[in-house]
């Protein structure tokens, strides 16, 4: 075990034994002081940390988010002056116009990430604090928190707002509304809450580590649940006789073949969606009735022609480079597992962590489309329409994100362990 501050290990110290969810190593963790973190000595995955905020403080942040949310979502953020007519843009108006003008599936994808998930995330944190005050075991709330957290993308929407400002100013005079302050603060508080709350530690607040695991035991008998990151010895069984986690009741030890099938199915579906997403028009702008369709790449080129090279770089990175790189990395890791290729394990884990971190930023282009829909409506001299590629692009982002979540990094470490064992025996 490694920590970020020195800790003296003695027999009197309390310790617990846990499995690492990334590399499956069994790690002995001593009592941590405030500000310390326990890190797996093999893969450097953070197992426990004491630097997170208390649930009470997080709930105060969540309450502030809910108070600001109506102003951030429904009130105008930016406005344009088109032939003397002021047109406002808001998060909700963009989703609503997209849904009512024939793009309901694309609008639903944006609604999930930009409206529903941020509100649900804040509500869950508040409900968890209420459960703690009322001494209730909120198993379902904790499971929901783990599922919802990766899909909270309010910070991505904030960047999309900046891109939209640069895109619209070419066609009309742009004004920034006072409610943009509420939106910025909501995005910052949501990002802060996203960073400071750790579902694993919240699980431990309500369901502490089993005392049996604090005693020395054989490594083979220690089980691990990926859903709630819980290490235990004796699993429960459901009605079908399958072993389940005693804390969250999720099925454990799913066969590797099933995990690989799920990952392959989702990834291949995402790859199929990427072809129309890159080849078909992402958006269509009508100037005096003359259509101008933009694909993902032509949209980047148009920003470069406007001289907005930094915006072009952001859009290219989020909409083209990240989705394609994510697919290539996942293909590489899956091929390594299937053909048992031994490459640098540190490099492979670093690539997997990159995929988890950058995947959500691919939604940037869809958020820009939603804002453009609320600013430029049908019947004006400037007319804007969402292209057919938008839904395929959103579906590709969703599918590849879920594929990355389904991939089990322990399969890579199993290949590494077998190779190390052969090397030792030889």
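Q: What amino acid sequence fits the structure above?
A:
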């Amino acid at each position: 075990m490694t920590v970020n501050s020195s800790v003296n290990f003695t027999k009197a110290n309390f310790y617990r034994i846990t499995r690492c969810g990334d590399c499956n190593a069994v790690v002995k963790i001593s009592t941590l002081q405030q500000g310390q973190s326990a890190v797996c000595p093999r893969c450097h995955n953070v197992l426990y940390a004491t630097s997170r905020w208390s649930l009470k403080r997080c709930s105060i942040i969540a309450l502030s988010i809910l108070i600001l949310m109506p102003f951030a979502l429904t009130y105008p953020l930016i406005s344009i002056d088109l032939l003397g007519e002021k047109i406002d843009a808001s998060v909700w108006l963009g989703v609503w116009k997209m849904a009512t003008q024939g793009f309901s599936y694309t609008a639903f994808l944006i609604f999930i990430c930009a409206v529903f998930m941020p509100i649900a995330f804040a509500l869950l944190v508040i409900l968890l604090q209420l459960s703690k005050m009322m001494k209730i075991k909120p198993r379902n709330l904790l499971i929901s928190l783990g599922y919802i957290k990766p899909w909270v993308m309010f910070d991505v929407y904030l960047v999309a707002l900046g891109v939209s400002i640069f895109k619209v100013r070419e066609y009309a005079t742009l004004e920034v509304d006072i409610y943009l302050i509420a939106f910025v603060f909501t995005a910052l508080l949501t990002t802060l809450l996203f960073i400071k709350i750790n579902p694993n530690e919240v699980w431990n607040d309500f369901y502490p580590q089993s005392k049996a695991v604090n005693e020395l035991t054989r490594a083979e008998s220690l089980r691990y649940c990926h859903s709630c990151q819980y290490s235990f010895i004796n699993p429960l069984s459901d009605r079908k006789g399958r072993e389940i986690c005693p804390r969250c009741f999720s099925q454990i030890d799913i066969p590797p073949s099933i995990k690989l099938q799920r990952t392959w199915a989702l990834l291949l579906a995402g790859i199929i969606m990427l072809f129309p997403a890159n080849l078909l028009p992402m958006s269509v702008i009508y100037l005096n009735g003359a259509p101008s369709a933009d694909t993902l790449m032509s949209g980047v080129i148009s920003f470069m022609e406007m001289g907005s090279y930094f915006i072009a770089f952001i859009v290219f990175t989020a909409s083209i480079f990240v989705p394609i790189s994510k697919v290539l990395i996942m293909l590489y890791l899956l091929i390594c597992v299937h053909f048992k290729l031994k490459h640098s394990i540190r490099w492979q884990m670093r690539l997997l962590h990159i995929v988890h971190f950058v995947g959500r930023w691919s939604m940037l282009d869809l958020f820009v489309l939603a804002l453009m829909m609320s600013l430029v409506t049908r019947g004006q001299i400037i007319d804007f329409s969402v292209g057919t590629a938008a839904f395929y692009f959103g579906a590709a982002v969703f599918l590849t994100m879920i594929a990355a979540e389904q991939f089990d990094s322990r399969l890579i470490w199993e290949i590494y362990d077998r190779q190390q064992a052969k090397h030792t025996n030889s």
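Q: And what stands out in the fold?
A: The CA atoms of residues 66 and 362 lie 26 Å apart.
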